[in-house]
Amino acid sequence: MNELPDIRLLILLILIVLAQSIYLFTDARKRGHAKWFWGIWGIIQTPLPLICYLVWSRKLQPYLIKRRDENG
Q1: N or C: which end of the chain has fewer CB within 10 A?
Q2: CA-CA distance, 49 to 51, in Å (whole number)?
Q3: What is the pLDDT of residues 52-62, one digit of tens each?
Q4: Which pLDDT value is given to residue 62?
Q5: What are the tens digits of pLDDT across the range 6-52?
Protein backbone atom coordinates (compact mmCIF):
# COMPACT_ATOMS: atom_id res chain seq x y z
CA MET A 1 0.00 0.00 0.00
CA ASN A 2 1.61 3.17 -1.23
CA GLU A 3 0.77 6.07 1.03
CA LEU A 4 1.49 9.60 -0.06
CA PRO A 5 3.47 11.75 2.36
CA ASP A 6 1.53 14.31 4.32
CA ILE A 7 1.25 17.60 2.42
CA ARG A 8 2.32 19.55 5.51
CA LEU A 9 5.60 17.63 5.63
CA LEU A 10 6.29 18.38 1.98
CA ILE A 11 5.54 22.07 2.47
CA LEU A 12 7.84 22.17 5.51
CA LEU A 13 10.68 20.51 3.59
CA ILE A 14 10.24 22.89 0.65
CA LEU A 15 10.34 25.89 2.98
CA ILE A 16 13.48 24.60 4.74
CA VAL A 17 15.33 23.99 1.47
CA LEU A 18 14.22 27.32 0.03
CA ALA A 19 15.24 29.27 3.15
CA GLN A 20 18.60 27.50 3.20
CA SER A 21 19.22 28.30 -0.46
CA ILE A 22 18.31 31.97 -0.04
CA TYR A 23 20.58 32.27 2.99
CA LEU A 24 23.50 30.60 1.21
CA PHE A 25 23.06 32.78 -1.87
CA THR A 26 22.84 36.09 -0.01
CA ASP A 27 25.64 35.32 2.44
CA ALA A 28 27.93 34.06 -0.32
CA ARG A 29 27.24 37.23 -2.32
CA LYS A 30 28.03 39.37 0.72
CA ARG A 31 31.30 37.53 1.41
CA GLY A 32 32.43 37.29 -2.21
CA HIS A 33 32.06 33.55 -2.64
CA ALA A 34 30.52 31.67 -5.58
CA LYS A 35 26.92 32.72 -4.88
CA TRP A 36 25.28 30.67 -7.64
CA PHE A 37 27.12 27.50 -6.66
CA TRP A 38 26.08 27.76 -3.03
CA GLY A 39 22.51 28.80 -3.87
CA ILE A 40 21.93 25.96 -6.32
CA TRP A 41 23.57 23.37 -4.09
CA GLY A 42 21.47 24.63 -1.18
CA ILE A 43 18.22 24.11 -3.07
CA ILE A 44 19.13 20.54 -4.04
CA GLN A 45 19.57 19.06 -0.57
CA THR A 46 19.76 19.88 3.11
CA PRO A 47 21.64 20.28 5.55
CA LEU A 48 25.02 19.30 4.04
CA PRO A 49 25.45 22.46 1.88
CA LEU A 50 24.80 24.68 4.89
CA ILE A 51 27.30 22.79 7.04
CA CYS A 52 29.96 22.83 4.30
CA TYR A 53 29.41 26.54 3.62
CA LEU A 54 29.70 27.50 7.26
CA VAL A 55 32.90 25.48 7.67
CA TRP A 56 34.33 26.91 4.43
CA SER A 57 33.41 30.56 4.94
CA ARG A 58 33.91 30.87 8.70
CA LYS A 59 36.84 28.56 9.43
CA LEU A 60 38.71 27.20 6.43
CA GLN A 61 38.94 30.18 4.08
CA PRO A 62 40.11 32.72 6.71
CA TYR A 63 42.72 30.21 7.85
CA LEU A 64 43.96 29.70 4.28
CA ILE A 65 44.09 33.46 3.62
CA LYS A 66 46.01 34.07 6.86
CA ARG A 67 48.43 31.26 6.05
CA ARG A 68 48.97 32.61 2.52
CA ASP A 69 49.67 36.11 3.84
CA GLU A 70 52.13 34.84 6.43
CA ASN A 71 54.10 32.89 3.82
CA GLY A 72 54.34 35.91 1.58
Answers
A1: N
A2: 5
A3: 999 999 999 88
A4: 85
A5: 888 999 999 999 999 999 999 999 999 999 999 999 999 999 999 99
Q: Which ranges of the chain does DSSP label H, i.e. alpha helix? A: 7-31, 35-44, 48-54, 61-70
Burial class (CB in 10 A: 0-12, 13-18, 19+), 43: middle
**DSSP label of 3:** P
Q: 18 to each of 2, 32, 59, 71, how far by Cα in Å?
A: 27, 21, 25, 40
The reported pTM is 0.81
- Contacts for 42 with CB less than 8 Å, ≥ 6 apart: 17, 20, 21, 23, 24, 25, 49, 50, 53
